[in-house]
């Protein structure tokens, strides 16, 4: 694990808030000049701490007004089934997150949809692509209270 100092953590917070900022702007906010700031960012990228820089798109602005959380249960936990399931997840772009879980749920998915009709199309595609599902249960978010795109970096390990 890479040891992060306070300046590294400040840089990470600035990049998470707005990765389009110039090196000069980030450097000024963390108390460095441009070259040392740029070197630190490169080191964080090389260490795999920064895994990429992307533009965040607002789902609501794109008309994706429904956030659905879907739990899946299956009796088949074979490697072949898992490979097929992973392949199916890549074919459904509306599935923005998918997690293999512990406990009484096998998989948890986060799906973005335009409306209930669109969700039903995604659901039908899911059950067509993934044989052997015992239960597919959905819950719809009524309100997003927090968007967790910023990873906490102010704690020591």
UniProtKB/TrEMBL annotation:
Entries under Pfam families matching the protein: AsnC_trans_reg, HTH_24
Domain HTH asnC-type: 4-65
Keyword Transcription: yes
Transcription regulation recorded as keyword: yes
Transmembrane segments: none
Keywords: DNA-binding, Transcription, Transcription regulation
Name of the protein in its database record: AsnC family transcriptional regulator
Organism expressing this protein natively: Algimonas porphyrae
């Amino acid at each position: 694990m890479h040891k992060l100092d306070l300046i590294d953590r400040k840089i990470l917070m600035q990049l998470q808030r707005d990765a389009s900022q110039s090196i000069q702007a980030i450097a000024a906010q963390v108390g460095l000049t441009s070259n040392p700031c740029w070197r630190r960012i490169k080191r964080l990228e090389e260490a795999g701490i920064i895994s990429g820089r992307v533009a965040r798109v607002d789902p609501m602005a794109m008309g994706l007004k429904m956030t659905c959380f879907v739990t899946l249960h299956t009796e088949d936990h074979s490697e072949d089934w898992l490979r097929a399931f992973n392949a199916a997840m890549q074919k459904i772009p509306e599935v923005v997150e998918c997690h293999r879980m512990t406990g009484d749920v096998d998989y948890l998915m986060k799906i973005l949809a335009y409306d209930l009709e669109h969700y039903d199309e995604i659901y039908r595609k899911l059950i067509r692509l993934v044989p052997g599902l015992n239960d597919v249960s959905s819950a719809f978010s009524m309100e997003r209270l927090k968007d967790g795109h910023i990873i906490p970096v102010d704690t020591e390990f």
